[in-house]
Design goal:
There is one protein chain. The chain is mostly helical. 75% of the residues lie in helices and 0% in strands. The protein has helices at residues 11-26, 37-50, 52-71, 73-84, 92-107, 117-126, 131-147, 153-165, 172-204, 211-221, 234-254, 257-261, 263-270, 286-303, 308-321, 323-342, 344-355, 361-378, 382-399, 404-418, 426-435, 439-467. Helix 17 packs parallel to helix 19. The longest helix is centred in the middle third of the chain and has 33 residues, at 172-204.
Length: 468
């Protein structure tokens, strides 16, 4: 039986409709500035400006991956891995999700995950799964890690710093303890959910991808069978080793080491690394990361014995192939820009806070969680949401004699939950675009897992608020 045609709206249409809807809402709220036609029209442009560092990083990353692919090392390595795991391919899923979750809980692994889609999609398709399995492993793995943040500087770190600056004491032991409980419980739910679907796809051919998505997946990630098996030689192994080191450096470079080691020790150990791009490891962001991948694309091309023209052509092809992802990220950021311009985000926050005054703990915790889900949809950036909301929610929590540390995890858990599915997140929409999965398909597949994680988190946080 042939699969039915996919008639869902494209990611661009969904995002543009959201921008229009947000603009329309401002006309019914006297307290905010009314959005104009110019605000709507210019939102994607200003979103592009706001997300320019991420966009450049994604373009360069696409070029880098294309150069690596041109050498043949990536496909040969994936084939070798799949042959080695023959019959045990499912083990890839928990391993990958645990790694991504560790990255999420420690340093907010989010936009950086976009660099792994091409590799993991290729590996999963070669192993007999589909790209929805790869997408689930990445988004749910890293997302649950961010949801259960322990020392993530961009979530619990910023939120704690905001409260401390207001003179509110935050017990970091409590933050880490609750974060770990959220992480372990929800990661278990997510791993079992992805593995159940992956097993169904492999054993029963039960993929829920539409015919259009399947065709795009096959065209992009299915490796053609060759009569002569490609030999996985020493040169290819060296290229893959460099490939792994490149991403390892990326991870090391964005971890805020100075916060863990102290400024003096940090400078002693990492100060030398500023020679490459004027910023030492631990202080890199998307600009530095983009140039790191640019340099490594040249290195890989030389080792792979590609000509100058082959390196340039491969790089440009990879960058052009990922332009749609860049544009999706820019338009998604445009929704946040419009809300900031009109004051819609602050209005919703103040309205939500007024609902929480003078209620019992049994109502306060779950209602706070629900409110933060709404706020996180409006402000998908965890650091931005923490900065805007904590000066209001933190003092409110302390004033009601509840533990502010729990409120920090309520924010983190709600923000993390929303960023598993919100169309205003460039990470979600960009990742889906790379994986050739439509947003409607993602929601159809992931909503049960999101619901289970949401309920589990709400129960954990309510109990924590009652006990502390």
């Amino acid at each position: 039986m042939s699969k039915k045609k996919n008639r869902s709206l494209s990611s661009f249409t969904i995002l543009l409709l959201i921008i229009v809807a947000l603009a329309a809402i401002t006309w019914f709220i006297p307290e905010v500035e009314q959005a104009t036609l110019a605000n709507v029209v210019m939102a994607p442009y200003y979103g592009f400006i706001d997300a320019i560092d991420v966009c450049i990083f994604i373009l360069v990353l696409g070029g880098y991956l294309s150069v690596v692919t041109k050498t043949g090392a990536l496909n040969a390595g994936v084939n070798a891995l799949v042959r080695k795991l023959h019959g045990n391919e499912l083990v890839l899923i928990p391993i990958l999700m645990i790694i991504f979750a560790i990255g999420g809980t420690t340093f907010g692994f989010a936009e950086e995950t976009l660099g792994f889609y091409a590799l993991i999609c290729t590996a999963m398709v070669a192993a007999g799964f589909d790209t929805l399995v790869a997408t689930g492993a990445i988004i749910l793995g890293a997302g649950v890690g961010c949801l259960g943040s322990t020392v993530n500087p961009f979530a619990t770190g910023i939120a704690s710093d905001v409260l401390v600056s207001l003179g509110i004491n935050v017990n970091q032991g409590t933050v880490i303890m609750i974060g770990l409980i959220l992480l372990v419980v929800n990661l278990t739910i997510a791993i079992l959910y992805v593995m159940r679907y992956a097993r169904k796809v492999k054993e029963e051919k039960g993929s829920i991808l539409s015919a259009k998505e399947t065709l795009a997946m096959e065209h992009t990630y299915r490796q053609e069978e060759k009569k002569e098996e490609v030999h996985f030689n020493g040169k290819m192994k060296l290229i893959l080793a460099i490939f792994g080191v490149t991403f390892l450096v990326m991870v090391i470079a964005v971890i805020p080491w100075s916060a863990f080691l102290g400024e003096e020790v940090y400078t002693q150990f990492f100060g030398w690394s500023s020679i490459l791009n004027a910023a030492p490891l631990g202080e890199w962001w998307f600009g530095e990361l983009a140039m790191w991948f640019f340099i490594m694309a040249i290195v890989v091309g030389i080792i792979g014995k590609l000509s100058e023209k082959e390196i340039v052509d491969a790089f440009l092809f990879g960058a052009s192939d990922i332009v749609s992802v860049v544009l999706i990220i820019a338009v998604a950021r445009g929704a946040s820009v419009l809300m900031s311009q009109t004051g819609l985000d602050v209005y919703f926050l103040e309205t939500a806070a007024s609902l929480l005054r003078n209620v019992s703990v049994l109502i306060f915790a779950p209602l706070s969680y629900v409110i933060y889900i709404g706020l996180s949809f409006l402000i998908p950036s965890s650091s931005g949401c923490a900065t805007v909301t904590m000066p209001i929610m933190g003092p409110l929590t302390q004033g009601l004699n509840f533990d502010p540390a729990v409120m920090i995890l309520i924010f983190s858990a709600a923000s993390g939950l929303v960023n598993l599915f919100t169309p205003t997140s460039g990470v979600v929409m960009g990742g889906l675009s790379i994986a050739k999965v439509e947003y409607g398909t993602w929601i159809k597949w992931v909503w049960k897992c999101v619901a289970m994680i949401g309920v589990a988190s709400c129960v954990i946080l309510t109990v924590a608020m009652m006990m502390l």
